[in-house]
Write a structure and sequence with these properties.
alpha/beta; 527 residues; four-stranded parallel β-sheet; single chain; 38% helix; three-stranded parallel β-sheet
Length: 527
């Protein structure tokens, strides 16, 4: 549903905007007033006596209360837990607060308890004379009553033969949208038939969140904490913006206005993470040249944390084949902190899994905050930023066209191949890529079987790449076009021309690799 402005999107944006406004207006002396304001917010967001979205206004406000808490980074509560919306607020307002697991949450009383893997006859059934559905069913679960086909659910084995046989397409297999979107098969049902996430399997890709049509799944946010850090004039906060930003905030926020826009929110400045993408490209290209196939049968890219974590959880024997180069987000943050030792860095991107990555002990010193584009839009609305009035400073020069291409599926592998061709033109690099964790799982199964020995593998958890991340705003196809346009105006084509290479070499060698493989392996272990 990304790119379609639904009521779920509107509610989320209203909540993010409300939290952002609270934070911009807040000071430590106002903590009592803030408790009161948070209690009022559900009534401001859902006014009146009749709900516009659900069966009653009381349920809608109860759901909004929990969404507000998650947007503040506070824990989710059950329907039988009593407490104020602002319960635990004093802990949440601290700028240094990190996410506490779980990151992705199901608001149980918002869940529709959707049928999961159920075959049903719809009203399209014409009661035809041929009745092929009854003939093909191996368990005789389909019969005709009152000139309509009926399925006995106790006999049905969900083989789908009746679905295929119906000439009108009147028989449908119903699958829970969140479970269908989960490539980790981490979503089941609780005792009431509501969606339930197995946190040991979850990699926080957020696809369940993006595909739930009832808005029952939400992730935690750091909007309030980030704004508090921005308001601290003694510590500059930089926005490190992912390549998928192209076109995300509409045509009025041109590349030349991005820095102005983020300065209007209070940031010291904004830099593009495509710079870090180039540095990641250089590292992965070097690793591939030196390690495949002599030391490793294949090498897989590292920039997508959900893909990387999935690989380590499900294929621990091949964990060493996942590149240990730091991700573009971390490299960009590390460079900023080398240049501005007292600064804080907020990664602005499309991805919920980046929140999980940044919360790791070994990454916290590099990235202080992670917000999605959708969450930042709430900040723009809270500050009433008019993009058309912003000055055109310049585009965020530095990243190559290949670095900006990290935002789309296939872009990471393409960047690494182009880099290798620049330095080793005689070398042939075979590539295989996958998008969506289900497809990624198949890719790694084949790699484990030896099908891709000598290959560079690219995996992206979101179908379409980062432009399809859970925190994006625009339609995927439109975003791909915007990224391509942004690539076309890049000063440099490939990572080898990156002007920050000297800074890369100035970092100590240990700074260029994920410093704690044991930590990742422990986190990846399936309990």
């Amino acid at each position: 549903m990304r790119g379609v402005q639904t009521s779920v999107n509107s509610i989320r944006t209203n909540i993010y905007s409300a939290i952002a406004k609270l934070s911009y207006d807040y000071n430590e002396a106002d903590i009592k007033d803030m408790h009161t304001q948070m209690e009022q917010l559900p009534y401001d967001i859902c006014p009146g006596e009749v709900s516009n979205y659900r069966e009653d206004v009381f349920l809608e406000r109860a759901i909004i209360r929990e969404r507000l808490r998650l947007a503040m980074g506070l824990p989710l509560r059950r329907a039988d837990e009593m407490g104020a919306v602002s319960q635990g607020l004093e802990e949440a307002v601290k700028p240094e607060k990190y996410y506490q697991p779980p990151l992705i949450n199901v608001i149980k009383f918002a869940c529709h308890s959707c049928p999961d893997n159920v075959v049903k006859v719809t009203d399209v059934c014409q009661g035809c004379l041929a009745r092929p559905c009854t003939e093909v069913c191996p368990k005789k679960a389909v019969s005709v009553r009152d000139k309509r086909s009926v399925i006995d659910q106790d006999l049905c084995i969900k083989c789908g033969k009746c679905v295929d046989a119906c000439p009108y397409g009147a028989i449908k297999r119903m699958v829970r949208p969140c479970a269908s979107a989960c490539g980790m098969k981490a979503i089941g049902s609780d005792e009431y038939g509501r969606a339930d996430i197995d946190q040991d399997k979850c990699v926080s890709c957020g696809m369940c969140l993006a595909n739930c049509p009832f808005g029952a799944i939400a992730d935690k946010a750091q909007i309030f904490q980030l704004i508090q850090a921005i308001k601290d004039k003694d510590t500059p906060v930089f926005a490190a913006i992912a390549p998928a930003v192209a076109g995300q905030f509409g045509h009025d926020l041109t590349p030349g206005r991005i820095r102005s826009a983020f300065k209007a929110l209070g940031f010291e400045d904004a830099v593009e993470v495509a710079i870090g993408a180039d540095l990641c490209t250089l590292e992965e290209a070097n690793d591939f040249i030196n390690e495949v196939p002599e030391k490793l049968p294949f090498m897989a890219t590292s920039c997508c944390p959900a893909w990387s974590m999935m690989a380590k959880k499900l294929f621990p024997d091949n964990a060493k084949c996942i590149s240990m180069a730091l991700t573009p987000m971390v490299l960009t943050g590390r460079l900023l902190k080398k240049k501005y030792p007292n600064c804080k860095v907020a990664f602005i991107g499309p991805c919920s899994a980046k929140k999980l990555e940044a919360s790791r002990r070994t990454i916290r010193s590099d990235i202080d905050f992670v917000l999605t584009f959708e969450e930042v839009m709430g900040m723009f609305e809270a500050k009433e930023v008019d993009f058309t009035t912003l000055p055109e400073i310049d585009s965020m020069h530095g990243g190559s066209a290949d670095g900006r291409g990290f935002a789309v599926s296939g872009g990471v592998a393409k960047a690494v191949v182009n880099c290798i061709k620049e330095t080793h033109p005689e070398m042939e690099v075979k590539v295989a890529s996958a998008q969506g964790l289900e497809e990624c799982r198949t890719l790694l199964l084949q790699a484990k079987a030896g099908k891709f020995n000598g290959y560079l593998l690219e995996g992206m958890a979101c179908p379409g790449g980062c432009v399809a991340g859970v925190g994006t705003i625009q339609p995927i196809a439109k975003s791909k076009g915007a990224v391509a346009k942004h690539q076309s105006v890049s000063t440099n084509a490939h990572a080898t021309a990156n002007v920050y290479q000297d800074m890369l070499h100035a970092l100590e060698e240990d700074d260029l690799k994920s410093p704690d493989l044991k930590e990742l392996e422990a986190a990846a272990a399936v309990k």
